[in-house]
Design goal:
Layout: E1 6-16, H1 27-49, E2 54-60, E3 68-76, H2 83-87, H3 102-110, E4 115-121, E5 124-129, E6 134-138, H4 139-145, H5 148-158, E7 169-174, E8 185-191, E9 207-222, E10 231-234, E11 240-245, H6 248-256, E12 266-278, E13 281-295, E14 302-304
Parallel strand pairs: 4-9, 11-13
Antiparallel strand pairs: 1-3, 1-7, 2-3, 4-5, 5-6, 7-8, 9-10, 9-12, 10-11, 12-13, 13-14
Helix pairs in contact: 1-5, 3-4
Length: 306
C-alpha cells in the first residue's frame, strides 16, 4: 500500500501596473519570473530538507483577465522545514497586506547593503552589514540568504520585472479553494520603490563563523603558566592544535602546582569551537572554557577538579 503523503500549495504570481492594461507581458520576462520562482523554491527545499526532498512546481491556467500565473507547488511527503514560509512566499500567520516575512523581509531590510560577517550560534545567526548594523536571523533563513542561486532567482521574480516602465508591483498570493484566482490572499508584495533591495549581488563575499560547544579528552602538550595564549592540546584523532586558555580557575591551579603538572595528563575539556570560512580559506579556533577533570595516565581514573 502506498503510504506516501503529499502537501499542495497553490500560489498566484501577479504583476500590476498600467503596463498590463492590454493583459500582455514580454514572454521572456514571464518565463524568467516563473522559472526564478520555481528554482528558488526547489533550491530552498533542498538546502532546508536535504537532497531527497522533492518539490514539483507546475503552472496552471490563470482564471481571469488580470495578468499573472498560478503555480501548484506539490511536495512529496511533509517537509521538515517549510521552504515557502522560510523564503517569505507564504506567511506563517495570516498576513497584513504587504507584510513581508522570511528571506524577503530581510532582503528588504538589508536594502542592497552587503554582508561583512555572519556568526552562527545555535539556531541564531548574527549578520553584520557593511555599515556595521547587526541583524539577528533564524539559521534557516541565513542559509537561504547565503545561497547565490536563490538570490539570483528571487531577483528574476521581484527585481527584474519592476525595472520596466509601467510595472508597479509584484504580488504572491495564496489561492482560496473554489474562488477566482484574482481573489488570492496577498502573502508578499514588492513595489517598484522597493525593487532595488532584491537585486542579486554580483558575489557574496561574506565571512562566515559558526560557534559550537564541544567536549573532548585532550593532552595539553604546550602550557603557559603566565597567560591565556601559548597553549596547545593533542586531540583524540592525534592532531595537535593551538588552544586559548580561558578557564581562569584551572590556570590558577596550574600555577600553584607547576611542578606536578605534566603533559601526560589526560583532561576532559569543554571548548568553544569556532570555524571560519571566507574567500581567503577556512580556519578554526579552540578556546578552553572549562577543564572539567583529568584522568590519571596509569589507571585512567577520573579525578575531579578542585
Amino acid at each position: 500500500m502506498n503510504t506516501e503523503t503529499h502537501s499542495n500549495t497553490r500560489l498566484t504570481l501577479r504583476f500590476d501596473g498600467e503596463a498590463f492594461n492590454d493583459h500582455e507581458m514580454d514572454a521572456e520576462q514571464v518565463a524568467d519570473a516563473i522559472k526564478g520562482m520555481a528554482a528558488s523554491i526547489k533550491q530552498a527545499d533542498k538546502l532546508l530538507n536535504g537532497e531527497n526532498s522533492i518539490v514539483d512546481v507546475k503552472v496552471v491556467a490563470f482564471q481571469d483577465g488580470c495578468f499573472g500565473a498560478v503555480l501548484d507547488i506539490i511536495q512529496t511527503s511533509v517537509p521538515t522545514v517549510n521552504a515557502l514560509v522560510t523564503l517569505g512566499l507564504v506567511a506563517s500567520v495570516p498576513a497584513i497586506k504587504g507584510t513581508k516575512e522570511g528571506v524577503l523581509k530581510y532582503l528588504n531590510m538589508f536594502n542592497g547593503r552587503k554582508t561583512k560577517e555572519e556568526v552562527k550560534t545555535g539556531k541564531i545567526v548574527k549578520i553584520t552589514l557593511q555599515d556595521d548594523d547587526v541583524v539577528e536571523v533564524d539559521k534557516d533563513i541565513a542559509v537561504l540568504l547565503q545561497d547565490k542561486s536563490i538570490r539570483k532567482n528571487l531577483a528574476n521574480v521581484f527585481h527584474a520585472p519592476l525595472t520596466h516602465q509601467g510595472v508597479d508591483s509584484v504580488t504572491v498570493g495564496l489561492t482560496v479553494k473554489g474562488e477566482n484566482a484574482a481573489k488570492a490572499i496577498p502573502q508578499a508584495i514588492v513595489t517598484r520603490e522597493e525593487h532595488s533591495a532584491y537585486k542579486a549581488p554580483a558575489k557574496l563575499n561574506v565571512v562566515t563563523k559558526e560557534i559550537d560547544e564541544i567536549i573532548k579528552d585532550v593532552y595539553f602538550t604546550k602550557i603557559n603558566f603566565n597567560g591565556k595564549d601559548g597553549w596547545a592540546a593533542k586531540f583524540p584523532d592525534g592532531s595537535t592544535k593551538k588552544v586559548r586558555m580561558d578557564d581562569k580557575l584551572f590556570l590558577s591551579r596550574a600555577k600553584q602546582n607547576e611542578e606536578k603538572f605534566s603533559s601526560d595528563m589526560l583532561f576532559v575539556v569543554k571548548f568553544e569551537y569556532t570555524s571560519t570560512t571566507s574567500l581567503d580559506g577556512a580556519s578554526e579556533k579552540y578556546v578552553v572554557k572549562h577543564v572539567q577533570r583529568h584522568r590519571t595516565s596509569s589507571d585512567n581514573k577520573l579525578i575531579p577538579d578542585s
